[in-house]
Each structure stands twice: as C-alpha cells, then as structure tokens.
Amino acid sequence: MEEAIKQIGERLKGLRESLDLSVQEMAETCGVTEDKYLKMEAGENDLSVSRLYKLSQKYGIALDALMFGEEPHMCSYFLTRRGKGMSVERKFAYKYQSLASGFSGRRADPFLVTVEPKPEDAPVNMDIHPGQEFNMVWEGRMDLRIGDKKFVLEPGDCIYFDANQPHCMRALDNVTMRFLAIIF
C-alpha cells in the first residue's frame, strides 16, 4: 500500500515538473497547503481520489495515469473481470479498484471502493471534486454525508449527487463496506 502511494506521489511530481508548474499552483488545484502537497508528492500524506481527479481534469491527463501509471488504450470496449481491476489502497482505509482503467476517452470513472471500518469517534474528512457522483452499496452499510445532510445506505441503495458539495463515506456496524462509485 505505501509503495503505491509513493508511486502516485512520484507521478504527481513528474506531472508538475513536466508541465513546469509551481508547488503553489498544484497545491491550490488540490485545495491544500504547499506543505501538505509536498507530503503528497513524497508519499507521506493521504492522496484522495478527488484531489487526483481535480488534477486530471485541470491538466488534461487521464486519472488512470496518475493513479496507476498507465494510459488507457482501448476505445471500443474494456472488460474488467471480477477482482482484476487495477487498484490502489489509500492510507486511511479506502481501496479503489478501477473498473474501466483501460478505456480511452471515457466520460465517467467507475470504481469498486472498499472501506474498512473506523472508530465512531474518528475525525470526518469531507471532500469535494468537480462533477457528479453515483454510489451504490454492494456490501455493508454506508454512512454518507453530503453537506449537512446525513444518509444511511443499505445494500442495493444508491444515490446520485453533486460532488462539488462536501461529502464523505464511512462503513457502519464495524463491518467492511463495498460500493460502486461512478464519478462523472
């Protein structure tokens, strides 16, 4: 897991250097301080998919290239077999498995997300990113917060929302939760 985070950090640094961007500009795009951004590049700080998505959108690079180091290449279809999608685990209990990483020019980014349970009193980190998001719970139960609204989603429940609003998900009942997330 830590090696994958470090590799993403190296790709961020490579992107910044190849586009001749300042640390300040990258940090502003991510919505973090310069110090926190540099820790992301060093693989010492959490790399949220929403921050990577913001960078991919602003600089016109495939999200897959930042997350997995591979450019998508298929343009007619891309098949992902069960358990075979490219994945990255973040430090703080989220595992993202891309379900369309090889499809070039796609208009949405589908992920199977696994969330490990955290203590009830763990801090809640709200996130925002451009676009819209669709979530459907497969296993476990989800505590979803969007702005000041709170929802509990059961297996089979789904929600579509404006991802520009602060939001976060948490597994309930001390049970691992899996859900389909599609970012548009």
UniProtKB/TrEMBL annotation:
Sorted UniProt keywords: DNA-binding
Keyword Iron assigned: no
GO cellular component terms, A-Z: cytosol
Molecular function per GO: DNA binding; DNA-binding transcription factor activity
InterPro entries: Cro/C1-type_HTH, Cupin_2, Lambda_DNA-bd_dom_sf, RmlC-like_jellyroll, RmlC_Cupin_sf, TransReg_Diox_bact_type
Pfam families in the record: Cupin_2, HTH_19
Stated name of the protein: Transcriptional regulator, XRE family with cupin sensor
High-level lineage: Bacteria, Pseudomonadati, Bacteroidota, Bacteroidia, Bacteroidales
